[in-house]
Amino acid sequence: MKLDDEAVRIAVGLRLGLDLCIPHQFQCGSPVDARGLHSFVCRIAPGRSARHHALNDLVVRCFASSGNPVTKEPTGLFRTDGKRPDGLTFVPWQSGKSLCWDVTVICPLAESYVTGSACESGAAAELAASRKEEKYTSIGSEYLFAPIAVETLGPTNTSACQLFSNLGRKISSASGDDREGAFLFQRVSVLVQRYNAVLLHDTLPATDCRD
Prior knowledge:
By secondary structure, this protein is an alpha+beta fold. It has a domain of 143 residues: tt1808, chain A. The protein is 45% helix and 13% strand. Strand 1 and strand 2 form a beta hairpin.
């Protein structure tokens, strides 16, 4: 009930490996095949940045709903190269330590991931999460770090699942609704599927409406 018809069409087509569009060329110069796969891996697609910010905003709202104040993209805390994680809790999250996190969405159908994804569900998310952990190895021991990697087909990495489950329990404690954890996973899934449609349409040639 939260997705329009086009987002549902693309979500089902991706899951079943169906053709999603007429083959065409994106502005980056790369061809987009009938399944639209380049749409979900192209680094210059404008929807990628919007999707990243939308997913991080969702995580921030969940922390707020659980009663944990956070800040987005904290500066000057961990790295000397200016790169920042996507968020940090102002108060301890676990074991007296604040939690910081970084989000990413990964396409398991990309050439570099498809072999591992064919063998194990969520393999691409786990690999992406491992890369995030390596990126932030310089984080001090006074902080916890949680990579949040979500695949375009749905699965999330193990640490993200644990974080979302904990957030769901905390939100349930505040709201009194035991379904908050399930709602959180659904919101993440709906967001990713909605942006899959956005990314595919980003690659389509502009429509000429002139008579």
